[in-house]
Design brief:
This protein has helices at residues 18-27, 39-59, 72-88, 109-120, 138-144, 167-176, 196-199, 248-286, 313-322, 342-346, 351-355, 368-388; strands spanning 6-7, 66-69, 100-104, 124-128, 149-153, 180-184, 203-207, 218-222, 291-293, 303-307, 325-326, 357-361. With 397 residues, it is of the alpha/beta class.
Length: 397
């Protein structure tokens, strides 16, 4: 095992920022049940509402539109469940016959699997294709929208290739069709400006551990007046939408992470985009026949997905890990699958090339010396693996 460890897998999860860690340690003494009326309960509730306001400020939305959850997957699943409930209710949400869900081919598994479950229950699901850069094909989206469409869910920034969608235009088109709009903004919030009100969406998902907060806590933005049914039935917490005793420590950690993300956003973008450019240019110059995946402009500042034809992704990861470099082949939630990335396949990358793809996602702790170490270490690894491979190296167009 290498002594030097370079972590470039920040899209999978981030460490706690020191300010967040300090806030959470302080929150351990705020033990009161935020639903209690005594002093300890009121203190806990006040701090939770401060955290709610901080998340709202980051999203450019009123605090009352923020509902806390255990994270992105719970929020997305609960939202799909709410939409199914609306469609099944008397008369539907706006008029009868709206039982159609629309999403894309490159969504996170928690969205695609929720859509798949809805389909098993008898709902119609339309999967919109993307172009070679991972951008939603807007003509296909327009063609899919109709008086039957209930709900449109499109990820704001892709977790694997970093491509950013035009959510504002997608929300406008959905609204014209009379449908509700959701964006999974888990990978976008804290990395690029995100204003839920300006985007025009009805729902937006956030996760703390993607922006230097704790795991197991997140939030769902619900536009004022947008319909919703409870995540969890029980008590009155979150205006009756999610019952259960408040996770004081986690929520306060999320609130601090949101405040720091809002404060440091410009610096984060400048730092990571410069490092990403150096990494991209260096790999392109030192390793022949590679493919950069994702949109060349509309992309997250910290995310670089590279295909190395003739080398297998997991073998690359193992060799990099032995050299002290920690990256991934794609989504952490799909890492147990032997199938090539569904995101890359959707962009037209062939299975063999997709299998040889690595995602580098940079963060606050990434330094210039880390990028230089990767550029020094990775080329001989790829050369070695390509020499060992029995598969003919695919030609890139």
């Amino acid at each position: 095992m290498a002594e030097k460890r370079i972590y470039v897998d920040y899209n999978a999860t981030t460490p706690l920022k020191e300010g967040v860690k300090a806030a959470m340690i302080g929150a351990l003494d705020i033990f009161g049940n935020a639903s209690s009326l005594h002093g300890s309960g009121r203190l806990a509730r006040a701090r939770i509402e401060e955290a709610r306001a901080a998340v709202g400020l980051l999203l450019g939305s009123p605090a009352k539109t923020i509902v806390f959850s255990s994270g992105g997957s719970e929020s997305n699943n609960a939202l799909f469940a709410a939409m199914r409930s609306l469609a099944s209710g008397p008369g539907g949400p706006r008029k009868e016959g709206r039982r159609e869900f629309v999403t894309t081919s490159i969504e996170h598994p928690c969205v695609l699997n929720s859509a798949g479950y809805a389909e098993k229950l008898g709902f119609d699901v339309r999967i919109i294709p993307v172009d070679e850069y991972g951008k939603v094909k807007m003509d296909a989206l327009k063609a899919a929208l109709s008086e039957k469409t209930l709900f449109v869910s499109v990820m704001m920034a892709n977790n694997e290739i970093g491509t950013i969608q035009d959510i504002k235009e997608i929300a406008r088109l959905a609204k014209e069709a009379g449908a509700f709009t959701h964006t999974d903004a888990v990978q976008a919030v804290g990395k690029i400006p995100v204003n839920a009100v300006d985007l025009g969406v009805d729902y937006l998902t956030v996760s703390a551990h993607k922006m230097y907060g704790p795991k197991g806590v997140g939030a769902l933005y619900i536009k004022e007046g947008a319909p919703f049914s409870p995540f969890i039935h029980g008590g009155h917490q979150e205006n009756g939408l999610r019952a259960g005793t408040y996770n004081n420590t986690g929520i306060l950690g999320l609130g601090e992470a949101a405040a720091l993300a809002a404060r440091d956003l410009c610096e984060y973008q400048q730092k990571t985009s410069a490092l990403k450019k150096r990494l991209k240019d260096g790999l392109s110059a030192s390793i022949p026949s590679i493919k950069i995946n994702g949109h060349p402009v509309d992309t997250l500042p910290n995310t670089l997905n590279v295909s190395f034809p003739g080398a297998e992704g997991e073998a690359i990861l193992i060799h990099m890990d032995m050299a002290g470099i920690e990256a991934s082949t794609g989504s952490a939630c799909a890492s147990g699958s032997l199938e090539p990335s569904h995101v890359l396949l959707a962009t037209g990358v062939g299975p063999e090339v997709a299998h040889g793809s690595i995602r580098f996602s940079l963060g606050w702790e990434t330094g210039e010396e880390d990028v230089e170490y990767i550029l020094k270490t990775l080329p001989p690894i790829i050369e070695k693996l390509r020499a060992m491979s029995t598969i003919e190296q695919p030609k890139l167009s």
